[in-house]
Amino acid sequence: MRKTSHQSDTTQDDQNSVLTTNQGLPITDDQGSLKAGPRGPALLEDFHLQEKLQHLDHERIPERVVYARGAGAHGYFQVHKPLGHICKAGFLQSPQQKTPVFVRFSTMIGSRGSPDLVRDVRGFAVKFYTEDGIFDLVGQNMPVFFIQDAMKFPDLVHAMKPEPHCEIPQASTAHDTFWDFISLMPESMHMIQWLMSDRALPRSYRMMEGFGVHTFRMINDKGQATFAKFHWKPLQGLHSVLWDEAVKINGMDPDFHRRDLFDAIAKEHYPEWELGLQLFSEEDAEGFDFDILDATKLIPEELVPITWVGRLVLDRNPDNFFAETEQVAFHPGHLVPGIDFSPDPLLAGRLFAYSDTQVNRFGSPNSSELPINRPVNPVHNNQRDAAMRYTINSGRVAYQPNALGGGCPFQARANEGGFQSFPEPVADVKSRMRAPKFFDHFSQARQFYVSQTSVEKNHIAQAFQYELGKVETLSIRARMLGLLLRIDEGLAKTVGEGLGMDPIPLYDADVNHAVPTVAQFDQYMSLPTRWDLPESPTLSMLRQPNPGIATLKVAVLVGNGFDGAAYSALASALAEHKAEARIVGTHLGIMVNNKGEEINADYNFATASSVLFDAVFVPGGEDSIRVLQDEPRALHFIAEAWRHCKAVGLAGEARALLEGAGLLRILGNSLPPEALESGETVARDGLLLGSHGLQLSKRFIEALQVYRFWSRERRPQPPV
Ligand code: HDE
């Protein structure tokens, strides 16, 4: 694989490195400033102190106005089969070719230091360093967006960000200005369904889908165009956490997603995604009920199936967060020959905004020269100068046409790899109107909702109850309930119950709350909901198959004297499936098992919590269980894992913990008494009991594969 240019810029101090100033002057004392005597005033001539302080004073650049919080990784992309018949892009032609990539995942709403597990859409931006230049696919983990037209983007962002008078709340949509805007913006209803779903709380960046959102065009060698929508499917499975977990993870480990990505790559569990394309023609597009230029709509897979065309692998962590993840600059307008835009009016605005925002972030149009942003192929043009120019262009010619420079650099012909915009015919009257199909704001929102399992529907309703419950202005809540009525009556009612309000159809709601403009807006600007759209199972996360348990983390709770055999059986079964056992001990350092063997604890009960793990297992061992029975944090750990519907394995004597964890009361009737006495493996709703190490581990792996046991949500819960 050809190295990307930024790899050659990495420097590392070795053991012989001597501390120098930025001018290369070796420094003898870096511990104190230069003073007139030990107690004397500091001297102005201390250039070393000045240089250090000045550098620190300028170490921050403006964070991204949106998508500021993120994490990135290097990797490569490989196509499965040549795609020349659809797209002539060079990097899509040879399965042998590995194209280097840098990927940055992010949240949209929070600032750079905000926690990872906030309810939000996640950015999924991929920079391909192709031989024909940079291609940026700047997408997200939801296939639709809040708005249809770039004109509304600044309004959306202002409404969504912390309120300007008090800068509250950080990284949350649960406040009045956001819902005020949304309740007056029926086109956002589809995205809002996604945002209230568990998709907005991914378990890991590695376990979420990605979408290019807009319609793009692919062009083959003959100049023929096909419309395309981009999809990324994670091979690690598609998982989310519950809201209750998310809130707690933000406290226990605000870097949960960032750490998870970094650790997985460091352990060589390289995350992978399949790249998929939904390909369709102009005629297909005309037949759809929705407009393919409307970013608030998706194309159901039942209508246009996905063709899986390649594989993305992330296999290298950045060496330096700032130089790579913070300075990477994406732009949807970075294209290569073979890929072009559609005239989506949201995308059009993006084509201006990204280069503009980067001048703000870097203070210069030269950010394309930063190592992480440089293409791997050479750059030749007549652009010169500006702040932080690194390239030293020799010669006196910086214009075109020229004879003094021999005419260089030459324009490339299309058949020599030159980019040519797709010659789309354009002839219409200038106006700010939208095309008619843009006005169906509710049908796909409903289709998304009805395609969810009942568990997912519940979570959506709970999310609305929380978000709207945080809204203080009653008329905003009422307007939102009115809009929800147009998606699903049951949803509107359930949300209303939580708010103590009856949903009222929008016009009445508006009359009641005296917001007449909304009634006008709604009446004239939206088409009625199509109640008959069929379910689309791929819109539901839980209806998708679970590929395996690789990289899932199991907490193993132990005190000294724990059953070494039960632990070893589980640890090796997990390792066989590339999942991990992590020891949570009554203390850090060495824990001793019932055979006198020693094992290092990864966490103690102060540093670990069940929300950081995918499942919990407790080996038996009388001494260990006696201690754990008296450790409220261990009992809470088990009860909470149960409450979050995770697999819970209690080996041998560990079944005694059922009572302290409050589970015996809940399960009493469904567990035959002999199950508690005998060593036979018993499995109930993801609770595994037994004394036979191998048998129990096998059942535990099966439970981990199921991942969550949602029926528990309908049962009484232990008090945690
Ligand atoms: Fe962005 N967006 N965006 N956006 N966006 C930015 O660019 C913008 C939109 C997305 O990891 C900014 O360099 C406008 C849709 C991601 O560095 C800014 C509009 C989608 C990232 C900007 C949109 C995205 C950004 C802020 C509507 C999903 C982070 C910093 C017209 C397909 C990329 C920056 C990274 C970042 C503008 C809409 C995704 C301000 C004007 C739709 C993943 O330029």
List the helices and strands and how they pair.
Elements: H1 47-57, E1 69-79, E2 99-107, E3 122-130, E4 133-140, H2 153-160, H3 176-183, H4 189-196, E5 210-211, E6 216-219, E7 225-234, H5 243-252, H6 256-266, E8 272-280, H7 282-287, E9 307-316, H8 321-326, E10 339-341, H9 345-362, H10 443-450, H11 454-469, H12 474-485, H13 489-499, H14 506-513, H15 516-525, E11 553-558, H16 564-576, E12 580-585, E13 589-592, E14 598-601, E15 603-604, E16 615-618, H17 622-629, H18 632-643, E17 647-651, H19 657-660, H20 663-667, H21 673-677, E18 682-684, E19 687-690, H22 693-706
Parallel strand pairs: 11-12, 11-16, 12-15, 16-17, 17-19
Antiparallel strand pairs: 1-2, 1-9, 2-3, 3-4, 5-7, 6-7, 6-10, 7-8, 8-9, 13-14, 18-19
The structure holds CIS-heme D hydroxychlorin gamma-spirolactone 17R, 18S (HDE).
Summarize the structure.
The protein is of the alpha+beta class and 720 residues long.
Any key phrases for this structure?
Rossmann fold, Catalase HpII,  Chain A, domain 1, binds CIS-heme D hydroxychlorin gamma-spirolactone 17R, 18S, Hemocyanin, N-terminal domain, 720 residues, alpha+beta, single chain
Write out the CATH superfamily name of the largest domain.
Answer: Catalase core domain
Main β sheet profile: 10 strands, antiparallel
Mean pLDDT: 94
Residues in helices, as a percent range: 25-40%
Ranges where pLDDT stays below 50 over 5 or more residues in a row are 511-516
Distinct ligands: CIS-heme D hydroxychlorin gamma-spirolactone 17R, 18S
Which architecture of the largest domain per CATH? Beta Barrel
Per DSSP, what share of the residues sits in E-state strands of 2 or more residues?
A: 15-25%
**Shape annotation:** globular
What is the count of structural domains?
A: 3
- Rg is 29 Å
Number of helical segments with 4 or more residues: 22
CATH topology annotation of the largest domain: Catalase HpII,  Chain A, domain 1
CA-CA gap between termini: 52 Å
